């Protein structure tokens, strides 16, 4: 059952169920790696506003993004070293920048992770429909089906999800590198796909246009932070393995991004109707034969499975928020396999609601995308600048300049993206992030109030022994009553049985049978003219406010779950009302049937 606290997992088994460097690359990096399927295209879509000749700027813009990628990789390696318990930008902000900024980092990461799942699955569903037009009416079903599969795999265990994703990740990277190498080896494209380019120059090449292209292309950097957020999921030595994985991610992503940008620039690839820029590059490298369709299917699979990055990173982040008292504590519970199942289920539910809201249309999600992760990038870089200035280790100034430059670049990208996409839907993110911050703050306020009420950390007066009273509601003289009374006598020296009757004669007859039975427990009968049983017992307990009262509620528990609906619901109702309306200690005594 999700969230059940299981027996302690043997250390060797638990370690085997964590991630190695290559497993972490598969489980946590597919989102970042697969972003080359739309990152370079985002650059081209902005630049062609100045005509097809402006496509020549794709490589310089991609080069600037690759520089930023290198800065982020180095930065997150430092984050992993400084905060090996995970949390990424949230951990950095909490340690270096204070409470409000850490709430901003946490809220932005939550939004980004949920959007990553929705965007990846909707893009994958759209790619499937492009290859098989007959499924055009089932995009939402395909996306939700993919979400269900990923949720089930991650509930089973993160190591299992890494094994499932290893082959698709390797296939996607191989396909992209093959497209780059084969395309560059050819003197000109082998084939062209899609309709005729419909490009009309609407503005001149200028600094603002290049800045917008840079901001749009930075969508290829989403997912870079996931490894730093999920360091506890790695095998020992965790920090070192996570850093190695971050370096592998940076090298692969940078190579693919620059290689595709070089092909786009050399061949002057402009957007065409009905196909993606990556599909054009694939056709230019392989032609339109079987390799072309195989490469597109691999890309589709990678986009669908890229959502797994969020399943590896967000549950860990939610567990840290829960430990800090900013989310319900159940998000910090782990199952027998080392996974945070409540976090996984919460992510799946939020992503499903978002997919249903937009009917799995990627175009409606893109304006919401990437803002959250840029905020996280900026916060983590700024926090590290403060870290270096405060502690001043060797070469701290070099680190501070590096992280400060990264913070400036990512903040610029976030602002440009928010402004240019505000009316297209980015305003939703601008509203949701403050609301999440408010939610985290209110939950934290509640837990602080509870700690004050309980005087946590203070020396309170020691408890004193008092004469308690144990009350047992009974409905008859049978094995259930006998065993419940036996259990009650172990809880305290004074036990009282309570019976409720709507007819005085029946009450008197029951008392006569009780006295003949002679259990050694005093019986009190309550009259109930309105034929209710629960409320007279609750009223009786309320009248004993001068004593410590414990109520032992007997109930029958069938052996088979399907018979539970046939049992008397009054014991459950009575226990619920007693907890809500009295200060009594409420216990239930289950009599387990053996035949039913």
Automatic annotation (TrEMBL):
It is a multi-pass membrane protein. It is found in: Membrane. Keywords: Membrane, Transmembrane, Transmembrane helix. One of its GO terms (cellular component) is membrane. The chain crosses the membrane at residues 44-74, 103-132, 138-157, 164-185, 205-227, 247-265, 291-318, 339-358, 364-384, 396-419, 425-443. Coiled coil: none annotated. This is Amino acid permease.
């Amino acid at each position: 059952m999700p969230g059940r606290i299981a027996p302690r997992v043997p250390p060797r088994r638990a370690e085997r169920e964590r991630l190695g460097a290559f497993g972490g690359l598969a489980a946590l990096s597919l989102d970042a790696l697969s972003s080359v399927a739309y990152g370079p295209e985002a650059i081209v879509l902005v630049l062609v506003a100045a005509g097809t000749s402006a496509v020549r700027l794709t490589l310089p813009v991609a080069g600037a993004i690759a520089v930023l990628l290198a800065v982020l990789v180095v930065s997150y390696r430092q984050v992993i070293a400084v905060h090996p318990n995970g949390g990424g930008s949230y951990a950095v902000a909490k340690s270096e920048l204070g409470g409000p900024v850490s709430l901003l980092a946490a809220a932005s990461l939550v939004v980004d992770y949920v959007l990553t799942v929705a965007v990846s699955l909707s893009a994958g569903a759209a790619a499937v429909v492009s290859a098989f037009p007959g499924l055009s009416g089932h995009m939402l079903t395909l996306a939700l089906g993919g979400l269900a599969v990923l949720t089930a795999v991650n509930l089973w265990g993160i190591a299992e999800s890494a094994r499932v994703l290893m082959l698709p990740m390797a296939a996607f990277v191989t396909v992209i590198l093959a497209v780059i190498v084969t395309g560059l080896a050819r003197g000109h494209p082998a084939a062209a796909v899609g309709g005729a380019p419909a490009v009309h120059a609407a503005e001149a090449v200028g600094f603002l246009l290049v800045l917008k292209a840079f901001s749009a292309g930075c969508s290829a950097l989403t997912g870079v932070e996931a490894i730093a957020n999920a360091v506890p999921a790695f095998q020992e030595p965790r920090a070192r393995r996570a850093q190695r994985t971050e370096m592998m991610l940076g090298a692969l992503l940078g190579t693919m991004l620059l290689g595709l940008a070089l092909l786009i620039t050399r061949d002057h690839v402009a957007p065409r109707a009905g196909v993606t820029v990556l599909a054009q590059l694939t056709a230019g490298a392989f032609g339109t034969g079987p390799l072309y369709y195989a490469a597109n299917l691999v890309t589709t699979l990678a986009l669908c499975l890229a959502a797994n990055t969020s399943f590896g990173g967000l549950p860990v982040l939610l567990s840290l928020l829960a430990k800090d008292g900013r989310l319900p504590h159940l998000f910090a519970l782990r199952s027998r396999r080392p996974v945070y199942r409540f976090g996984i289920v919460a992510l799946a539910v939020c992503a499903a609601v978002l997919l249903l809201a937009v009917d799995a249309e990627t175009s409606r999600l893109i304006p919401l995308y990437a803002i959250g992760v840029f905020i996280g990038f900026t916060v983590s870089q700024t926090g590290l600048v403060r870290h270096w200035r405060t502690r001043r280790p060797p070469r701290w100034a070099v680190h501070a300049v590096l992280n400060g430059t990264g913070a400036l670049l990512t903040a610029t990208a976030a602002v440009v993206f928010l402004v240019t996409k505000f009316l297209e839907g980015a305003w939703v993110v601008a509203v949701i992030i403050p609301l999440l911050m408010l939610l985290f703050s209110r939950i934290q306020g509640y837990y602080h109030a509870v700690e004050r009420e309980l005087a946590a950390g203070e020396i309170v007066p020691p408890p004193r022994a008092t004469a308690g009273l144990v009350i047992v509601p009974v409905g008859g003289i049978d094995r259930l009553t006998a065993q419940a009374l036996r259990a009650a006598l172990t809880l305290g020296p004074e036990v009282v049985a309570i019976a409720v009757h709507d007819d005085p004669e029946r009450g008197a007859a029951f008392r006569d049978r009780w006295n003949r039975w002679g259990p050694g427990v005093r019986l009190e009968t309550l009259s109930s003219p309105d034929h209710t049983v629960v409320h007279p017992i609750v009223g009786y307990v309320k009248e004993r406010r001068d004593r410590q009262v414990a109520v032992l509620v007997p109930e029958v528990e069938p052996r088979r779950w399907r018979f539970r609906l046939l049992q008397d619901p009054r014991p459950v109702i009575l226990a619920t009302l007693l907890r809500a309306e009295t200060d009594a200690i409420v216990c239930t005594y289950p009599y387990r049937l053996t035949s039913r």
